[in-house]
Write a structure and sequence with these properties.
Distance between the termini: 47 Å
Number of helices: 23
CATH superfamily of the largest domain: Metal-dependent hydrolases
CATH topology of the largest domain: TIM Barrel
Radius of gyration: 26 Å
Largest sheet: 7 strands, parallel
Structural class: alpha/beta
Helix content: 40-55%
Shape: globular
Strand order of the largest sheet: 11-12-13-14-15-16-17
Length: 564
DNA sequence: GCCGTTTTCGGCCCGACTGTTTTCAGTCG
């Protein structure tokens, strides 16, 4: 039972209770718990089996702790099973229809007694919905359209997929009439690995004009709403964009509010309440006096805090650290001096080692590692590869190619290449390319054995996840982190936009163990060398500083794996 | 249902927009 599965159970429980009409604060409590569980670095199942006190976790009280134990021990939650018998599963699907919430669904179900999508579609066609109290032709139409789209809901965009649209919108809006300041906010600004929609905040002297201009963006496929200060559109690629325009004196508080995360903003709001203050998108108020609203930094200053970078705003301790003025100074793209995981055309890559080296120097790198994938039968190829790197290195003065290799970790934890071959490389990456479904204890033991191999330098994309497609392998991270630390081994943050592995939450956790990182592109082409910015994003979200990342070092000679 | 060095009871974010109304409930972020 994974944390995701447990979180899903509480989410469904909350949704069904909401439809049932249960106390909304209770519903919110379940949703808070669900969100908390999703963000936990460690498996709840293990915590239950180790007899840990779950009520120590925020948003988990006695009742929910008991329910978690029930889920872990029996695989299900009786309370949810009962509710599911009371309401057909289609009701949960209806919640995903834009503009349709629990109250309407309750009314629909109580009056029309449908149990499938098809039945509800039929009722819409017969215009039975518009006659209900609180419904009308427009809502009926919305439901009919929403039912058709049900199946394709729930997809978030990879950050890198949303990025070109964000850039294009930014460029377009920059020249909107009367616009003063402009910023992409939301999860995009927080550099989250996926974004559900784009949130954009602007200030202008005449907001209505900006809104009107916004809705005329050429790639709009649907205008959901367009008021005096706010508008929502959907783009051709079905990416939703929420836009908010305020007066310039409110820009800071609006930007803060719409950057989120929700958890961060709510926590600040609670802090304001404790100080008898009120915070909203227009400012921080003491009675009617606005204490801070022009710039984001003003708001944090008003609380006596350091400025908090958007990447940290997830309510994972950043507010407390800001108060104590001990926030990390986050790593920046410019701190990266080398890319240590690149494929040439000796294996998966498109380019020759020389082409890569030339391009890397143009990017300003001081050294790189070429790390092609070799198997045990590639002996001749390996000799040729090593010779090629030596030959190129003899021509450089202020640049160095480090000899790397990517190597399979076999099921028993040994490496595919023998020690004699491995000893010819400066840096050896282990990857798991088979037996993904081993049980957690065996998978962890396999990786730990590889970590103990003196020839292995680090594990590449440790969880093997593919974002939104594959959860990856199951590991006991406490054991893994201890093994990495004990054996002086490192963690990679792989920058491929659909990997970003190890992720932010685990990176933050690993840092507590004193583990160092490498941020690598694992590029297969020259273009992909620029993916490294996504890895840096993830590192920033994981609270990493320059000093935590080995390829921020100016000199390759002081890298721990360089022997000579 | 969770939370709390002012609380173990009484709070729990709040403003904009839409579509239904005839002054406001529901939904969303």
């Amino acid at each position: 039972m994974t944390n995701k599965e447990i979180a899903k159970i509480f989410e469904e429980l909350a949704q069904l209770l909401e439809i049932k009409g249960e106390n909304s604060f209770k519903v919110r409590a379940y949703l808070n718990a669900s969100r908390e569980i999703n963000a936990l670095p460690y498996s709840l199942e293990s915590m239950v089996k180790d007899g840990k006190d779950l009520t120590k976790l925020p948003n988990i009280g006695e009742q929910i702790a008991k329910k978690i134990e029930e889920i872990v021990n029996s695989g299900k939650l009786e309370k949810l099973e009962k509710l599911k018998k009371e309401f057909p599963p289609v009701l949960l699907d209806l919640l995903s229809i834009e503009g349709l919430g629990a109250k309407h669904i309750k009314t629909l179900y109580e009056n029309l007694h449908f149990s499938t999508v098809e039945e509800l579609q039929e009722l819409a066609k017969e215009h039975k919905i518009r006659t209900l109290k609180g419904f009308g032709p427009k809502l009926e139409d919305k439901i009919a359209k929403g039912l058709k789209l049900l199946k394709q809901e729930g997809i978030r965009f990879l950050y890198a997929q949303a990025e070109p649209y964000a850039n294009e919108l930014y460029k377009y809006l920059q020249i909107a009439p009367t616009i003063i300041r402009l910023e992409i906010a939301g999860s995009f600004r927080r550099k989250k690995e996926t974004v559900g929609d784009l949130d954009i905040v602007a200030s202008a002297s005449e907001p209505q004009k900006v809104i009107e201009y916004f809705t005329k963006f050429p790639k709009v496929s649907q205008i959901i709403s367009a008021g005096d200060t706010r508008s929502t559109i959907v783009l051709e690629n079905s990416l939703q964009v929420d836009f908010r325009v305020v007066k310039d004196e409110h820009f800071g508080s609006a930007l803060h509010y719409f950057t989120g995360s929700k958890a961060h903003v709510l926590e600040i709001r609670r802090m304001a309440q404790d100080l008898n203050l009120k915070i909203n998108e227009y400012g921080l108020f003491s009675n009617d006096k606005n204490l801070a609203s022009k710039d984001e930094a003003d708001i944090y200053r008003a609380f006596g805090m350091e400025y908090i970078e958007p990447e940290l705003r997830e309510n994972r301790g950043e507010l407390k650290s800001a108060k104590n003025k001990i926030l990390p100074k986050l790593i920046e793209l410019g701190d990266i001096k080398a890319d240590m995981h690149i494929y040439s055309n000796f294996s998966y890559g498109e380019n020759s080692i020389e082409e890569i080296a030339n391009y890397a120097q143009e990017m300003g790198y001081k050294y790189i590692a070429i790390t092609d994938h070799f198997g045990s039968i590639d002996t001749n190829k390996i000799e040729q590869y090593l010779k090629e790197i030596d030959k190129l290195n003899s021509t450089y003065k202020d640049f160095k190619i480090i000899k790397g290799v990517e190597n399979d970790i076999l099921e028993d934890g040994s490496l595919a290449l023998n020690n004699n071959t491995l000893s010819k490389f400066d840096i050896v990456y282990g990857v798991i390319n088979s037996n993904f479904k081993l049980p957690k204890n065996l998978q962890s033991a396999r990786l730990i054995k590889a970590i103990q191999n003196p020839y292995l330098s680090l594990i590449s994309h440790i969880s093997n996840r593919v974002i939104q497609q594959d959860e990856g392998i199951e590991l006991n991270y406490k054991e893994i982190f201890n093994a990495l630390k004990a054996n002086n081994k490192y963690l990679e943050i792989n920058s491929q936009p659909n990997r970003l592995d190890i992720n932010d939450i685990l990176a933050k956790e690993a840092k507590k163990y004193g583990i160092k990182f490498l941020i690598n592109s694992s590029a297969k082409s020259l273009e992909e060398l620029h993916y490294i910015k996504y890895g840096v994003n993830q590192a920033r979200r994981g609270w990493l500083e320059k000093g935590d990342v080995l390829n921020c070092l100016m000199e390759f000679k002081i890298l721990p794996f360089i022997s000579s």
